[in-house]
Amino acid sequence: MIETPVCIIGAGPGGATAALQLNKLGISCVVVDKAVFPRDKVCGDGLSGKVIMHLQRIDPEMAQRFRKTVLKEDSWGVRFVSPGRLHIDVPYKPNYSKVTDQPAGFVCKRMEFDNFLVQELKRADKHVRLFEGVSAEKYKLTEDGYEISDAKGEFKVKAKLLIVANGAHSTFTKEVAGIKMEPQYYAAGIRAYYKGVTGTQEDSFIELHFLKSLLPGYLWIFPLPNGEANVGMDMLSEDVRTKKVNLKKLLTDTIANDPIFRERFKNAEMVSPLEGYGLPLGSKKRTISGDRFMLAGDAAYLIDPFTGEGIGNAMYCGVYAADQAATALQSGDFSAEGLKAYDERVYRALWPELQLSHRLQKLVKYPRLFNLLMKAATRNKQLQELVSCMFYEMDIRKKLAQPSFYFKLLLNR
Ligand SMILES: Cc1cc2nc3c(=O)[nH]c(=O)nc-3n(C[C@H](O)[C@H](O)[C@H](O)COP(=O)(O)OP(=O)(O)OC[C@H]3O[C@@H](n4cnc5c(N)ncnc54)[C@H](O)[C@@H]3O)c2cc1C
């Protein structure tokens, strides 16, 4: 039996960030992941500014290593395509310069990004012990900690505190934390890598195609290095069920038959399997800690309901869970009551944004409104700049989530 103050289940962005922050605080931990890295994770691979911000805050040299060594595409802006197929190109920063500005985000295969984080864990071996290829299956709460083991009981860890960061399909979340999947607050997503997609924006803007059949979800094309692109779709699980949608078929049919995509994909080749995974959306608040445990990342249901972004939020949780672990280890208070401070900090940071995104998600369900907005935007430079910051700037999103904004826009057309 390995004994440790903190055991982290999952070495994805949530778990790895928690371990890196614990390392920074000088606290030992054990990290267990069922995969052996490098491993793939179904994702759009879009890394927002939050990701680089966290790397920078934990260790500026680590952020520098990420910038210098990891294969990724710089991200300068977004192409929004309305259900009526109008598009606007919106840079994250107006009048950006690719020479003097740093890119606001990146598109980076999870195979590369998650492996980078795991390599950082291996560097932090003074405080972090990483066990790959071990699936945590059994959890036993005792008086002085949690005992965790694999299915056969061959691998055992005892920890004072548990950080559960094992992703969207976490059984701990369901069975111990009691958080159930609700299809109106959950999305299904699929993606494949393609080579040779044409017609991408000259500075590799990421593309969000709000097709009528998917609203409030969208089809995305995120350009990657070496002529590859991450192509996928997401849709609310509720809609997938009620409309009996086969998302994989919908994607391949759309690419084969839609006149615009058919042309753009005519010489393209799918270079990976087409795979799907769940997106637990942070559309409502949940209790994300309990006696001797904290949930982090997808296991805590914190994906942005509008953008589908979850990596940055998982990293927020990782940092906060580690900080809370430090407080609990110092005070000796591992109770559900004591760990509530973690929930409060996570929601203080993320709830305003999640709530707005939930409102926006409800608004973009209406294709006619969307088309009108896009028509107005193609003619209005100010509005383009407004949308430009939508994915990153809270104040802008706040405006966009208010019905009055749309009335004013329509009146001023
Ligand atoms: C189709 C799709 C597209 C998306 N696109 C984007 C995007 O473009 N940008 C973005 O920011 N977010 C995106 N997301 C969301 C993003 O993928 C997640 O929010 C993010 O991966 C959450 O990180 P995490 O560390 O919480 O979980 P994960 O990345 O899922 O990591 C969990 C880890 O736990 C391990 N694990 C699981 N069970 C066990 C176990 N029993 N024992 C030990 N280890 C275990 C797994 O092997 C894994 O390494 C997308 C999601 C989907 C499905």
From TrEMBL:
InterPro entries: FAD-bd (IPR002938), FAD/NAD-bd_sf (IPR036188), Geranylgeranyl_Rdtase_fam (IPR011777), Geranylgeranyl_reductase (IPR050407). Signal peptide: none annotated. Pfam families: FAD_binding_3. Residues 3-182 form the FAD-binding domain. It comes from the Bacteria. NCBIfam families: GG-red-SF. PANTHER family: CONDITIONED MEDIUM FACTOR RECEPTOR 1, GERANYLGERANYL DIPHOSPHATE REDUCTASE. This is Geranylgeranyl reductase family protein. It comes from Chitinophaga horti.
